[in-house]
Amino acid sequence: MGLVRTTGSTMRISFHARLAGLCLFSCLFTPVSGSAQTASPPPPPPVSVAKPVVRDVVDNDEFIGRFEPVDQVSVRSRVGGYLQEVHFKDGAVVKQGDLLFVIDQRPYITALNEAKATLEVANSSQTYAEAQFNRAQALSSNGSQSVSTLDDRRREWISAQANVRGAQASADRAELDLDYTTITAPLSGRIDRHLISVGNLIQADQSILTTIVSLDPIDFYFDVDERRLLNFAETARASGKALQEGGNGTEVIVKIGDSGQSSFKGRLNFAENRIDNESGTIRVRARFPNPDLILQPGLFGRIQVEASNTYKAVLIPDEAIGSSQNERVVFVVGPDGTVSAKAVRPGPRIYGYRVIRQGLDGSETIIVNGLMRARPGMKVTPQMTELPQSRTDAPPESAAAESAK
């Protein structure tokens, strides 16, 4: 009986263990509640949208050129001698008439004194010859003097007058040479360093003492190729203006350094009279006021020249333009929030925006921020914004964008 009880107890324990295992298995594989199975999909992503800017614009062509002085001069001496004084600081800004150099004046002072003495002798001889002629003329009138003697006195007097004029010319020349020993600035501008030191011998009309370049105003030279030159001519004809006199005073803008530098305004005032046979370009000049002397000769710059007449253009930010294989696209949002892609042809950059040549008419609603969250065919939550007529905070144009343009 004891053995039977033991066996029954063991069987009851085994049954309860299997029942607990079945309960645990059923708990592990219990299906998820109905609320979790019916979870709603996420809402459409929010994006910023806006209408393109439509305004009157004028296309610009950009050229690279270099600033050159309006006037420049190599300062030379008109007389020879030893350099005695230098009266300027290297690199200073000088005004026309400022004293620059002094050549040893003692030889020229001596020459002037000698010329003046010769002039006095000539004047004395002229006075004597004139008196002799007057006396001979008086005697000849009453027959006391022969006519031949009168002619000799007239010849001597005329010769004395010529000697006076020659002596006066020599004195003037000596005085002029003395004036040339003081060399002044022939124009206002920035002066270079002195190229000859005090004590050196200067050769007349040969030795370059220094150079001066004018700074205000300053010229900017650049080359225009044949294609764009013809475009300028066509634009001028369309506007009823003749393409002459170097652009007829057309206003231009030049920038120096990086794009963060301020721009300078000037006007076209000259163009060469023919196209260069080798390069196929024509050289054009613009003149800029430079009161602050910021622009320097030899400085490179990028000049913008009007390349069209005024027309209505569609403008959008560069950030709103995407790429699809080998074309540029803009994401347009429909009334129901559906995104579609439209191929566009970008143009130049004006007022901080990109001109769209083809693909948009200005009535579309485009994505301007959140482009990475949108795909053609999907729905988005548009958040309307308004683009200003011009942007001053536009990011600088990248090298890739410049190359693509």
User: Would you give the CATH topology of the largest domain?
Assistant: conserved putative lor/sdh protein from methanococcus maripaludis s2 fold
Q: Largest beta sheet, briefly?
A: 6 strands, antiparallel
Radius of gyration: 47 Å
Return the CATH architecture of the largest domain: Beta Barrel
Average predicted local confidence, pLDDT = 81
In total, the number of domains comes to: 4
Look at the helices and sheets and give the structural class.
Answer: alpha+beta
Strand order of the largest sheet: 2-17-21-20-19-18
**CATH class descriptor of the largest domain:** Mainly Beta
Number of helices: 6
Report strand %.
25-35%
**Would you report the number of β strands?**
23
Helix content: 25-40%
> What is the element string, with H for helices and E for strands?
HHEEEEEEEHHEEEEEHEEEEEEEEEEEH
Distance between the termini: 104 Å
Describe this structure in words.
Residues 383-392 have a biased composition (Polar residues). Residues 112-181 form the Multidrug resistance protein MdtA-like alpha-helical hairpin domain. Residues 1-38 form the signal peptide. The strands form five sheets. A six-stranded antiparallel β-sheet has the order 2-17-21-20-19-18, with no helix packed on it. It has a six-stranded antiparallel β-barrel with strand order 3-12-15-14-13-16. It has helices at residues 2-28, 34-37, 106-141, 147-180, 226-238, 399-404; strands at 46-50, 53-57, 60-69, 72-76, 81-86, 93-94, 99-103, 182-184, 189-191, 201-202, 208-213, 218-225, 251-255, 263-271, 281-288, 300-306, 311-316, 321-324, 327-333, 339-350, 353-358, 366-369, 381-384. The protein has 405 residues and is an alpha+beta fold. The longest helix is centred in the first third of the chain and has 36 residues, at 106-141. It has six helices and 23 strands. α3 packs antiparallel against α4. The chain is 30% helix and 33% strand. The radius of gyration is 47 Å and the shape is elongated. It folds into four domains: 47-57 and 311-404, conserved putative lor/sdh protein from methanococcus maripaludis s2 fold; 60-69 and 216-306, Beta Barrel (Elongation Factor Tu (Ef-tu), domain 3); 72-104 and 181-213, OB fold (Dihydrolipoamide Acetyltransferase, E2P) (Beta Barrel); 106-180. β19 and β20 form a beta hairpin.
